[in-house]
């Protein structure tokens, strides 16, 4: 009855906002959010797993003594670069967070919990963005080198390492974009909910 | 007069207009701080230049020689311009668009400082497995400048984070939207 009185008072704006908020509270919106979260979970866990198992060993001939070549093996692993370590850690945190948010989703109906989920969504998105950015700058350096600092590129020697790292990076970027879309979605739904409940 | 329901618990006699005013002042101060931090980061990074001669070979360090530092300069330049523009926008018109752009620019700045941080760590410590020697011993002036620029950029990122938090707060209580 109070709704009807307010609708008569404020005109059609209240009615339009309640229909929008009703649309956002509908099952379609919830399903969209769940599927986005699942996709982000897949992307970030792929990135973390692929980079964590990224290791390559090559053996090169360093010298020839008489007729016997002396071989030395070189290893490229993700632990050698702090940027890649940070990348793995951050993507692991993000995938765990997405898993937790997906499992606890149906139980969080409280408005305060909604705000908390949105804020931690933003924090996780920031983490994934920084991890992907740092790993991308390292990957660019490994691929192109820096002739001014006399840093030679390594991708011509460790091809599989570079390819796997590149795929992990792409997966992390996709996860970051999905997290951004989720952020925008929850922000809009929170705003519409608050407009509706304020009116 | 009807008191609107605020999302923030406030003391009873406080009216909505006083709170809106104080928040608005805080908002402007945050934007000014973000603009100043972004500008100083861009300028300090852009003026970093050092060279040293080692065994007849000249080792020169400029920010253009490194894509991550270029990105830092450009991103902070964009952040500075956007902060200035956002200060002078008539607020009621485009506030939702400003919120969206705030998040985008904040993410741009965090990505820039993450990339520059990775590069700076490499320049300071090197990477023995890849055969990359550290350069900060040879060009200490450049490294100091880069460190100063990254500190300013970090201040800018933290300020933009506060701006984004304030935007989220404005979203949740739309009566505070100016």
From TrEMBL, chain A:
This is CASP-like protein. The keyword Cell membrane applies. Residues 32-178 form the Casparian strip membrane protein domain. Coiled coil: none annotated. GO terms for cellular component: plasma membrane. It comes from Zingiber officinale. Its main location: membrane. Homodimer and heterodimers. Pfam families: CASP_dom. It is found in: Cell membrane.
């Amino acid at each position: 009855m109070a709704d009807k009185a307010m609708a008569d008072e404020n005109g059609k704006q209240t009615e339009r906002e309640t229909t929008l908020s009703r649309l956002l509270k509908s099952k379609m919106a919830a399903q969209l959010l769940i599927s986005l979260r699942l996709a982000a979970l897949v992307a970030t866990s792929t990135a973390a797993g692929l980079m964590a198992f990224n290791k390559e060993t090559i053996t090169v001939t360093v010298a020839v003594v008489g007729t016997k070549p002396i071989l030395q093996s070189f290893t490229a692993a993700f632990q050698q670069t702090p940027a890649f370590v940070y990348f793995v850690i951050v993507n692991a945190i993000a995938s765990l967070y997405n898993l937790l948010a997906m499992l606890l989703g149906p139980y969080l109906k409280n408005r305060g919990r909604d705000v908390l989920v949105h804020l931690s969504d933003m924090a996780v998105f920031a983490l994934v963005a920084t991890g992907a950015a740092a790993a991308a700058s390292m990957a660019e350096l490994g691929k192109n080198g820096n002739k001014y600092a006399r840093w030679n590129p390594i991708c011509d020697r460790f091809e599989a390492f570079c390819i796997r790292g590149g795929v992990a990076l792409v997966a992390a970027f996709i996860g970051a974009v999905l997290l951004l879309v989720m952020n925008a979605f929850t922000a809009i739904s929170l705003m519409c909910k608050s407009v509706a409940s304020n009116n | 007069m009807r008191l609107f329901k605020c999302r923030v618990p406030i003391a009873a006699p406080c009216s909505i207009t006083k709170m809106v005013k104080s928040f608005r002042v805080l908002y402007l101060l945050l934007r000014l701080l973000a603009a100043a931090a972004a500008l100083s980061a861009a300028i300090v990074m852009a003026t970093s230049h050092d060279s040293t001669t080692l065994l007849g070979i000249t080792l020169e360090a400029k920010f253009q020689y490194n894509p991550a530092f270029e990105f830092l300069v450009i991103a902070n330049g964009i952040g500075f311009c956007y902060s200035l523009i956002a200060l002078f926008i008539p607020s009621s018109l485009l506030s939702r668009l400003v919120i969206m752009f705030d998040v985008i620019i904040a993410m741009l700045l965090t990505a820039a400082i993450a990339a520059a941080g990775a590069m700076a760590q490499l320049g300071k410590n090197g990477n023995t497995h890849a055969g990359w020697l550290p350069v900060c011993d040879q060009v200490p002036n450049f490294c100091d400048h880069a460190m100063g620029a990254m500190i300013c950029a970090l201040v800018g990122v933290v300020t933009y984070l506060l701006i984004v938090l304030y935007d989220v707060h404005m979203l949740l209580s739309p009566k505070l939207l100016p």
